Amino acid sequence: MVIVIDPQIAGISGDMLLSSLIDLGADKNEIINSIKKTEKFLSGSTIKKIDFQKTKKHGIESTELILEIDENISKRKGIEIKKAILDSVNELNLSIKAKTFAESCINTLISSESKIHGINEDSVHFHEASSIDTLIDIVGVTIACENLKLFEEKIVCLPVSVGGGTVSFSHGTMSNPASAVLQIFKNSNLNIQGNDSREELTTPTGACILVNLTNNSIEYYPSMNITSIGYGAGQKDFENFSNVLKIIQGSENNSERDLVKILETNIDDVSGEILGHLIEKIMDQGAKDVSIYPGITKKGRPTNLVCVICDESIVDTIIDTLVLETGTLGIRILDSNRIIVPRTNHSFSLTFDGKSFEVNYKKSSYKGKTHFKIEFDDLKNISNSLDKSIVDVEAFLRREIEKRYGI
Questions:
Q1: Residue ranges per structural domain of the chain
Q2: Class in CATH terms, 257-340
Q3: Average pLDDT over every residue of 289-294
Q4: SS3 state of residue 236
Q5: What local confidence, expressed as pLDDT, does residue 155 receive?
Q6: 186/206 Cα distance (integer angstroms)
Q7: DSSP string spanning 186-227?
Q8: At residue 251, does pLDDT exceed 90?
Q9: Could you point out which of 84, 218, 257, 347 has its C-alpha 20 to 30 Å from the C-alpha of 338?
Q10: What is the pTM (predicted TM-score) of this model?
Q11: CA distances (Å), 282 to each of 29, 216, 279, 314, in order?
């Protein structure tokens, strides 16, 4: 399955995302009852009413969060909000993956404020994000994703609309998007775009949840068969567009295509150690793959053909590395279309000879046949910890995965 988040027109906020997940099929009553259990962890805030109701935004029927709260607090420490969120997810007995996600969301929000103001994270104070709204959005989305089993799915995101104009808040007036939103997206792979709405369309809370849900940016919808659609309404009304976030769930077709760059160069005067270091460095820079092939060039000279597959955005970085690390005098750059078999990342915990391990594996499907591959670093870790051969560990784990998940 694939989940497409579409914030191209109306951007994203925490309540829009939560509402769209309810509209997609998450259990409304479970989420409402769970959120009510969490208000005790944030003293000074009371939820008077919480519900999700159908509404229309420019004729589009969508789900909207109805929230009435009673609080007299204008600012809170970020670590206070974080503790309340962690206490909440522990109280609700959510999975380790869900708890990690919720913690990552609030950490992202705190980190962005810390970097903007140049202060220690423990000293960060929230103003607009100090309300119990922040807890409701992060915890609510976490519960909804767990309910829909989205943490096991491939999630992709179209360009995020941030709006335009200016935004006024506790630190005064500044151009939109605000610094917190820019800082959150700075370290992600997601794309943002402005428009002429002259309003804030993407909030810091919505941004921090989004970047922790996915780092997979797309420019257009993948080839897919749609199974369900969720529409989450924002609080504002706009004259020219529907203030609605769309989430689409479906199955990807057996293959998808993309365009990559292939960088090639012949190297005939460097050692194997340098080539090994080169592979590690280029992969760390974001290359999709690096291969080195032995060969013979003019005058019978032995050579190594270095072949790098990467996105266009990092071509210059890879070229710099190839030249500076190897001294090569020329690099060929080719465009190449790829057919990609969809794959998803999965993990599970198990106890092996009295020790606990987290095992990660990738699963792919093509024309009804499923294949999976266990992460080699996990195999190596378990092998070293238990003093067993990698072959024996892999055989055991493959049987375990096949038994647990029927692959």
A1: 2-252, 257-340, 343-405
A2: alpha beta
A3: 96
A4: coil
A5: 95
A6: 15
A7: HTSS--EEE-TT-SB-S-HHHHHHHHHH---B-SS--SEEEE
A8: no
A9: 347
A10: 0.66
A11: 49, 20, 5, 10
